[in-house]
Design brief:
Helices cover about 60% and strands about 0% of the residues. By secondary structure, it is mostly helical. Helix 4 packs parallel to helix 6. The radius of gyration is 20 Å and the shape is elongated.
C-alpha cells in the first residue's frame, strides 16, 4: 500500500513506529524498517556512550536506514525557541522600519536576531555575521527537510544529510553564542 506519506518519507508501507522511550531500541527500529515502515531510535535523554552503539547496531542491521531530518528540525526549533524567549513578535513588529519579508505572516528568525542585536546597541557591522548565521540555519534546516522528499537514493540521502546537519549545527552554535552572549568580554 503506497500512500503520499510513504512517498514523502521514503518508506514502503504507512507504518511509523512510535518513539516510546525505553521500549525502543535498535532491534525494534530495524524490524520496523525491514518491514518497510519508519523505525526510530529514541536518544532524547541518553548520553553519547549509549547512543553510539545503538546507531551502530541499527546501521549494521539489514534495514539500517538513518535519517537526520529530526535533528535538523530540532536544531532549528532550538534557535527559534531562544529567539521567541528573547523577543516576542509584537516587539519586533514595532521596530522602526520593520516590514514583513515576502509572504511571511510574522517576523523571521533573522529579523528577530536583528532586533536583539540592535536593542543591545551593536553596530550594524557587528550584527551581520550572527544574522547571517541565523538565516543560514533557518534556510539549511528547511532545505534538509525538503531534501527528504527530493532525494530518492537512501544512501545518497544519509551520506549527504549527515554532513549538512553537522554544518547546520555549527551555524546554530554560532548564532546561539552571540544571542546568549556566551563569549562576552568580562565573563
Amino acid at each position: 500500500m503506497r500512500t503520499p506519506l510513504c512517498q514523502r518519507l521514503g518508506i514502503e508501507v504507512p507504518i511509523i513506529q512510535a518513539p516510546m522511550g525505553g521500549a525502543v531500541g535498535p532491534t525494534l527500529a530495524a524490524a520496523v524498517s525491514s518491514a518497510g515502515g519508519l523505525g526510530m531510535l529514541v536518544p532524547w535523554r541518553a548520553d553519547l556512550d549509549t547512543v553510539r552503539p545503538q546507531i551502530r547496531e541499527t546501521r549494521e542491521s539489514e534495514a539500517g536506514r538513518l535519517s537526520f531530518r529530526g535533528v535538523a528540525v530540532e536544531l532549528r526549533e532550538c534557535l527559534r525557541e531562544v529567539l521567541d524567549h528573547l523577543v516576542p513578535d509584537d516587539e519586533v513588529t514595532k521596530m522602526t522600519g520593520f516590514k514583513l519579508e515576502g509572504d511571511q505572516k510574522k517576523p523571521t528568525m533573522r529579523q528577530k536576531a536583528r532586533f536583539v542585536f540592535r536593542s543591545r546597541e551593536r553596530p550594524d557591522s557587528a550584527t551581520k555575521a550572527p544574522e547571517d548565521a541565523v538565516s543560514a540555519a533557518e534556510e539549511r534546516a528547511a532545505s534538509l527537510v525538503r531534501s527528504v522528499y527530493e532525494r530518492g537514493n537512501v544512501s545518497t540521502h544519509v551520506a549527504t544529510t549527515g554532513g549538512e546537519v553537522r554544518q547546520l549545527k555549527m551555524y546554530v552554535d554560532s548564532a546561539l553564542a552571540d544571542l546568549l552572549q556566551i563569549h562576552r568580554a568580562g565573563k
